[in-house]
Fold these 3 entries.
Entry 1:
Amino acid sequence: MSSVLRASEMIAVGADLVVGIDLGGTKIAGAVVDASGTVGTIQSHPTPAAQGSSAVLDAVAALIRDLTTPLRRDGFRQILGIGIGTAGVVDSHRGRIVSATSAMPGWAGTEVAGGLRTRLDSLFHEELPIHVQNDVDAHATGESWVGAAADVKSALVVAVGTGVGGSIVIDGSVLRGSRHVAGEIGHLPTAGVGELVCSCGRPGHLEALGSGPALHRRYLALGGMTGCADAREVVARASQGDSTALRAVEDSASAVGRAAAAVVTVLDPETVVLTGSLALSGRLWWGAMESALRRELIDPLGGIPVIPAMLGNAAAVIGAARGAWDLVEGRRQ
Ligand SMILES: [Zn+2]
């Protein structure tokens, strides 16, 4: 696991640094990260998502200013690049959002790299490399660099929380796909989901049953207590023996397991890493997910490790920074 140092300690040793930013629908988190993956103190701002993309970019730029203010005396010479992991389907080559959900109104089409460059030009002397990628890809990149998948060549990373996302890492690099969508396991047609409608509007996709809100809806649809607030409470009720909650957890987690098994069967990655608040909610969810996954796999795949992520909320910040380092190192060559 990456050790967490205060930014000031890293500054003291004069390390080259990049800024890593994890940009989600509710929160923007960021830190400076050195070339070994050591991350400074993570700071965060709320995401002004409802105010549109320009306000969101203003908030990201403000956080980058906050994070780099201690480096001002040195003329920001230590800051070599900026990496962003953001919600939405991302064209990493152009630094542009291809599509986004209603959680980020107006985010689709946003020129993230260009918009940040305009906002930060007066701060940094030269044109810094700015790398932009999907936030689940950033998570996976972080785990693959210095986290749970650091010692393997390939991994399927699945994030299960308010949505269901996925990412495929091969030889340390995320598979982006020809249309920037590779790894989007949430939109995989999955047995057991039936006619439930996904966030994309189509029936039968994993996210319609596998996400936290979907688990909560499943519990209510099965006749669970109407006062139950959210997926976290459903999981808590299940662990206390509420049979309806247990069934909802089983239905939702096993859908994730079946979909992950499909991807494992196609790609044969070395390991599977699960992350996100629901995936890491405890033994009940995990057990249902893993047994459904293993039930689907043919014998040669039977021994595949299925492991929890290690870096928590720092993963996307670290992975976003890795994207920046890739650009920086590419420019050095
Ligand atoms: Zn979908």
Entry 2:
Amino acid sequence: MAKFERHIFICTNQRPADAPRGCCDANGLGELQLAFKKELTARGLKDRMRANKAGCLDQCEQGPTVVVYPEGVWYAGVKTEDVAEIVQSHLIEGHPVTRLLMADNESADA
Ligand code: FES
């Protein structure tokens, strides 16, 4: 049975446009999760790391929200154009992308 070194949980929760907390995947296309999946495949990491769709991670106001386990590093406001940097810097080199860390997670180390 495969055991992954890391899981990247990407919130793909949707809410109506007028929802007070907003949501992480307003158009419902799951583009951010797909971008992580594609990047892991392109870097030859798909057998070691998994990009998982997640329901609401309860950080909606800071979304789109991503959390990487086992280290528990949380990212806020992640865009598809940030994915390659997260994969290279954090998942490959072990250095979380500081500019995208969630406010209460700024001292996290991978
Ligand atoms: S909708 Fe994404 S964290 Fe709540």
Entry 3:
Amino acid sequence: MAISFSFTEEQEDIRRAAKEFAEKEFTHELALECDRNEKYPMELVKKCAKLGFHAVAIPEEYGGGGYTPIEQMIVMEEFSAVNPGLALACLTPIFGVEILLLHGSEEQKEKWIPKLCEGKAIMGMANTEPDAGSDSASIKTRAKLDGDEWVINGTKQFITNGSIADFILVTARTREVEDWKKRHKGISYFIVETDREGYKATKIVGKLGIRASDTAEISLNNVRVPKENLVGEEGKGFYYMMEFFDISRVWVAAQAVGIAKGALKLAADYVKQRKAFGVPLATFQYIQFRLAELATKIEAARTLTYRAAAIQVETGKPDSMLSSMAKWYAGEVAVETCDWALQFHGGYGYIDEYPINQFYRDAKITEIYEGAKEIEKLIVARHILGVK
Ligand SMILES: Cc1cc2nc3c(=O)[nH]c(=O)nc-3n(C[C@H](O)[C@H](O)[C@H](O)COP(=O)(O)OP(=O)(O)OC[C@H]3O[C@@H](n4cnc5c(N)ncnc54)[C@H](O)[C@@H]3O)c2cc1C
């Protein structure tokens, strides 16, 4: 049987539509304003949601596009190639929704997912804490059952949409474990509506990149949620989180591929018009070779990324090793491409008026969130060595 490496006509239509939307709406002025002022582009996000770009892969029964993760990644790639910060703000109002889709009760899904699809609600997911990031099983947040309510206490760090969301999926320890090695057991997910008493979000300012995206520290001080806000089974949260990362890492890989693609285009456009020593920079073979090398790496990252997604779609299950490989490699290629693209802009690249400046800063996050690149490599190595 032949292997297909081409996208379908429908996928190409989605790509075209996403590219057109981004090129029209992600204006230079808006990108600069949101980047400089760390402003969340609420109007743009709502406009984007009206067209359903953020909910392409959500089942139709909940108001989504009913496509697969591949089509959502195509949107992510095209948006990120135009402006990574605005792209992220537009596509993350549903960040974490896979956990609800896979493990939420029918009531929870019906209550929230249609609103998310319509752009009438924003969600987030809070795992990371001040002292627990890569080691996400070491969380200190606790949830204790008191009658018909769970009482949650703790602090969450770096939470996307933390200060603008309507609800956040929060991990908390519901059962103590004596053996530290078993700390991944006894963690659960809760829906925490952000208007509950005791929920406080403090927007984090001063981020290096993706400054249009909202990031907050969240404190949960005796926040009471009804029993029904537990998502899935009590004590299974860590497994849900790992399953989610296997899915979300291919989104980040697609984001990184888009960033690299966009940066390469900025570099190619620039070296064609900028002259030095009497000729366009593009005339220098050194620069041509570098562009060729980067383009090849981007294509390799892209193939790996969509292969990871295709396997997930075909088998109905993410491939943990491929997702990790894709995210690590595509992130590295994005950072490397942006570095060279800025280099070719010379001093102008150092100024934020030039879009490559934002790309350079935005790219770095792909090597940090959804698992730092070292965690990705650990996962790959564990698969190679057969270690659990
Ligand atoms: C802008 C932004 C948005 C984010 N959004 C969210 C969100 O919505 N929800 C959420 O829960 N979290 C979010 N995060 C948190 C992010 O996932 C964590 O920052 C990331 O997992 C790393 O955790 P940490 O920062 O605690 O770093 P640490 O765990 O302290 O690690 C620091 C560094 O040490 C190295 N390292 C760690 N462990 C190992 C190891 N075993 N072997 C080798 N090297 C290692 C890595 O280089 C790593 O970068 C966000 C972060 C940022 C910056």
